[in-house]
Amino acid sequence: MAEKFYLTTPIYYVNARPHIGHAYTTIVADVVARRHRLLGDDTFFLTGTDEHGQKIERAAAAAGVPPQQFADEVSASFAGLWKRMGITNDAYIRTTDPKHQQGVQKLFADLYERGFIELRTYTGQYCVSEEMFVEGPPGTIGPDGKPTETVSEENFFFKLSEFEGRLIALIESNELAIQPESRRNEVLSFVKGGLKELSISRSSFTWGIPVPEPAASQAKEKHVIYVWLDALANYMTAIGYGSEDPADIEKFAKYWPADLHLVGKEIIRFHCVYWPAFLMAAGLPVPKSIVAHGWLLFEESKMSKSRGNIVRTETILDGFGSLRPAPPSQPVGAVGVGGASGEADPSAALRDEKNKASGTKAQQDLFAADVLRYFLLREIPFGQDGSFSFDALITRYNADLANGYGNLVSRTLSMIERYFEGVVPKPSELDWERFESVVAGVLRHDNKPLNAYDFSGLIEAIWGMLASTDQYITKQAPWKLASDPTKRQELADVLYNAAEFIRFYTALCHPYLPYATASVWAQLGLGSIEEAAARGEFKNLQWGGLKPGTKLGPLAPIFPRADKGLAQIMNDMEAPAAAPTNEEAPSHHPAAPPRTSAIAEENPAAKVAGSHALSTERTGTPPHTEAAASGVFAAQPVTGESGTAAGAAQPTTISIDDFAKIDLRVAKIVVAEPIPKADKLLRLEVDLGYEKRQILSGIAEWYTPEELIGRRIAIIANLAPRKMRGLESHGMLLAASGEDHASKPILASFSDEIPLGSKIR
Ligand code: MSP
Questions:
Q1: 551 near 336, Cβ under 8 Å?
Q2: Which element (helix H / strand E) includes 398?
Q3: φ and ψ at residue 151, rounded to 5 degrees
């Protein structure tokens, strides 16, 4: 009977739309799921969204929509993206699903009944963006780099300290296997350092799952369940935990415990300490393994919404998708051997009726998703941090996919087409020796237990073989053999071996490049790769599996070369110079800001001095002023009767309605820091009371970060976000300065304790 394999990604917060950091985890999970499926395991792959908590509540409030509506929109953008990318998740959980909520309440009630939860009063420092209490005095800087908030609450506490010894035993015995080793050590030393009771409810906000009875009536206030307990439970509720339905009970019994929780390195404590402790307390089995990967960095910092340095996966799908070559005109694989069905469309997602309607775009998406999958898995040694850039993506694509695999396939198959009428020739003998020396090493590598996550190592090994196959062809020079009728058998041997190598590489790469390998499989005349994998053909690849006499499918290019200019196109998609045209998300959406002028520092147009900032911003025209470009809007004195050049250019009057369009607010600077390689700029984080955000400001010449932190200033809050130096700047400070731009701009400030976010009218 097939073994079961249950794997999960973290469920993603819905305060931000997906970026390629999220896609990275989902892609890794998809590769692992595909590998298990092709080994015949009964695989269940779960992903979804984490929708409760203060962070989401605040993001929805700032966007001016109810939290449920907000969560619905962002969750749909995650689900839609995974579909575009051909991700093969078997279920998609949302923590606002009623079944999930029921399961979480059951878990809480069980823990309470078993005596592991009690009510206490607690005052502590709370980090909202990480949704956790941290140690330290008021104003302590939280793990997100921002000051914490003092929260005093009567809370339900989970008796975490009772699990210290059992957690250590669990981890040391590898019953709960944590990878990589460095993370395992980190977790062990955290647990050995002593565990405190964990607050697992909140009464200061309402966007969460209510604490159930009988616990609820013990408390003075109404409590919602701590968002991490709520979120972690998704791994069980998605497969039926908490439901009375017999089908759900059976499903849960079959798949729990999870075989693999794949997570980013920043959330291992929640997964490796809290989660197994909750499960042990509830008398449930703990997951078998937790594997943490590193971060995707952009210009050396973690890609994240709060830093505003994200790259959207959609940009890569749209940018790279445009390169997808036209498919062959005839159905691919129609005359294949080995029971192939002749399915014209090789991708699983495209079998879906709905996708067929938009076939071309869907295929472009899958093609581009392959490119991103390959890049991320090849480029980043698993477990470590890695950088992303469009240039690196294009370089890697051209070197490995266009010139490497794609070229090997097209040169080999077109020679079979030309010299053997498109029929795989019969070799004189099966070249076992060659196979042993070249392929077996990689197969051994691949056959390591599947909990080895060395994706880049495996890909590197395959590409090493691919290069040697290329050299073999060059050395044998089949085009020369073809001109000599006495060398017909030698020609057949070379082309057979090359094609058989390609079949191997294609099978091995299928989990990484599902779309491209499906196309190559069909071009080899082997029909549907998915069906071949499902028949178990990839479990034990044997040399000689490509049968002589197989008629190749219609040939088509796989990976056309990408022009370097594509990087610029994708950069522009991230920060277009055009006015807002964001159709994908409603404009109230904070995570999907209306995309407007993105004047970067280096844009020469931005150096033109003038005083149109106010009026041009107002009308949505790009603000061509240095001040506007650098995140500070300075009022200038008018000198001379007829005014200065600046004065002369000023609009005469504006109406009160014009003024009302500008959202001026009081904000406090909570973080100020220099930006590497940008002498004039400071990166500020300002607190608007209802929201914290990042503004880049060109005031580094005049202000040190220390003198700025804590100041209450005036900002234009409804200025469209723009990117500078790869970082998002959302808003502008108000300051008065001399007309020459050379004197110090004096920031408009407030000394009174005016509430943050107050409107300036
Ligand atoms: N909602 C919690 C997880 C709850 S799981 C029970 C959460 N969500 S998150 O959206 O902030 O991040 C989830 C995951 O997204 C990270 O653990 C990581 O897997 C992935 N990534 C988000 N940003 C990333 C990078 N910049 N780089 C790589 N992965 C990143 O935490």
A1: yes
A2: none
A3: -125, 125
**Mean pLDDT, residues 431-437:** 64
CA 24 to centroid of ligand 1, rounded, Å = 10
Whether the pLDDT of residue 356 is over 70: the answer is no
**Per-residue pLDDT tens over the stretch 19-45:** 999 999 999 999 999 999 988 899 999
Q: Ligand 1 test: best mutation among 7, 8, 19, 24, most atoms within 8 Å of CB?
A: 24
CA–CA gap between residue 705 and residue 671 (Å, rounded):
8
Q: Distance between CA 512 and CA 459 in Å, rounded?
A: 9
Tell me which of 133-142, 650-659, 724-733 is least confident: 650-659
Calpha distance 693→522 (Å, rounded): 50
Q: pLDDT tens digit string along 534-582?
A: 888 888 778 888 999 999 999 999 999 998 889 888 888 887 543 333 2
Residue 4: CA count within 13 A, CB half-sphere = 14
* Residue 691, CA atoms < 13 Å, CB-side half-sphere: 22
Residue 648, H or E segment: helix 645-648
Cα-based torsion angle of the residue sequence 490, 492, 494, 496 in order, rounded to the nearest 10 degrees: -150
Ligand 1 centroid – CA 716 distance (Å): 31
Q: Yes or no: say if 521 and 527 are a contact pair by the CB < 8 Å rule.
A: yes
Per cent of the chain over pLDDT 70 is 81
- Dihedral (CA of 183, 184, 185, 191) sign: positive
Question: How buried is 269 (Cβ within 10 angstroms: 0-12 exposed, 13-18 middle, 19+ buried)?
Answer: middle
Please report, in angstroms and rounded to a whole number, the separation of the first and last CA atoms in the chain.
72
| DSSP letters spanning 587-630 | TT-TTSPPP-----TT-GGGG---S-HHHHHHHT----SHHHHT
**Three-class secondary structure of residue 286 per DSSP:** coil
- Nearest-CA residue for atom 10 of ligand 1: 12
Measured between alpha carbons, how far is 532 from 190 in angstroms, rounded to an integer? Answer: 47
Q: Give the distance from CA 174 to its chain's centroid.
A: 29
pLDDT at 756: 86
Residue bearing the CA closest to ligand 1, atom 18: 264
Task: Give pLDDT tens digits for 572-612.
Answer: 888 754 333 322 333 333 333 322 222 222 222 222 222 22
Q: What is the 3-state secondary structure (H, E, C) of 695-722?
A: EEECCCCCCCHHHHCCCEEEEECCCCCE
